[in-house]
Amino acid sequence: MIARHAALLVGAALLLAPVFLSTDYHLFQLTLTVASALAILGLDLVTGYTGQLSLGHGAFYAIGAYTTAVLMADYEVPYWATLPASAGTAAAAGFAIGMPALRLRGHYLALTTFALAVAVPQLLKYRGLEGWTGGVQGIALTKPGPPFGLGLTPDQWLYLFALAIAALAFFLVHNLVRGRIGLAMAAIRDHPLAAEAMGVDLARVKISAFAISAMITGVAGSLSAITVQFVAPDSFPPLLSIFLFVGLVVGGLGSLTGAVIGALFVEFVPNLADQVSKAAPGAVYGVALIAVLYLMPEGAAGALRRALKAISQRCFSRDLATVANRGSATEEGIGHVE
């Protein structure tokens, strides 16, 4: 328990350190990384924990972003008050998608959700919705400043704000997946027929997973819109859903830590690839992705768990050997005295 609390304190210190050590540009990047971690967390809930393959979470990301943008630009709603609206709108969309998804599995479900990711940007460009979405020109926003006269820059404040929202989301998902609903999700993922035979309501759990997953991803999109201060249909291409899926696989399915690692990968590795090769950054990114998947087939979180397990086993074996040696020395000393 003490080690766990110490690890939490160290983690909190590492997360808060950039506020005082990083530039505003780096804080901007880290805030987008937090948003990506939230989006990957939402995707992990439906794919990693429930076993439903989705390639359309970029659409929920866009729905959350546009809900925030419309409320802020047209109705002057405070940025923080748009998060519940974005969560509710994205959850409703996830519920609507979850209904037909009950009849689909595997690559059929993946293609259906990917069709959603392809359709949403085109719908945002539709002339009938230009009064809301701004059409191809998008919607520009104003970056909010820190409240209560805090001596922080807008980027410092938004990083802390996004960090607080992400911490709450990760805490709630952590409790969810370790409760009754999480056990039902795992049962559906591993043995759906056995889960149904044991009384698990497959339809209710799958729809709930999709709705909650979309809700979290919608909040991520809302945070990205507030941070970037601009939304446009071309900001949410179908490739966004692929990037989220790549982050999920790289980080590791069914892992909260993996969502963070995957977000770091999809946010920073493309920039590093561009620095390595201006001519073919995609090739460098592809090689890096193949190398990661080859070396860590269970994802970075799985590799980290194996490494920690090996270290703990080695330390435990060393402690046993030390105790055994001390016992032998004690027995020899007693025999010598006798």
Name the descriptors:
about 350 residues; mainly alpha; two-stranded antiparallel ribbon; about 0% strand
- The secondary-structure class comes to mainly alpha
Strand content: under 5%
Roughly how many Å apart are the termini?
Answer: 44 Å
- Mean pLDDT across all residues, rounded? 87
Quaternary state, please? single chain
Going across the major beta sheet, what is the strand order? 1-2
Shape: globular
Q: How many distinct domains?
A: 2
Task: State the helical fraction.
Answer: over 70%
Helix-strand pattern, N to C?
Answer: HHHHHHEHHHHEHHHH
In the predicted model, the low-confidence regions spanning at least 5 consecutive residues are none
How many strands, which pairing sense, and closed or not: the largest β-sheet? 2 strands, antiparallel
| Number of helical stretches of at least 4 residues | 14
Question: What would your notes on this structure say?
Answer:
The protein is mainly alpha-helical. It has two domains: 21-236, no CATH class; 303-338. The protein is built from 14 helices and two strands. A two-stranded antiparallel ribbon has the order 1-2. Helix 2 crosses helix 12, helix 3 (57-75) packs antiparallel against helix 4 and helix 8 packs across helix 10 (202-228). The chain is globular and about 75 Å long. The mean pLDDT is 87.
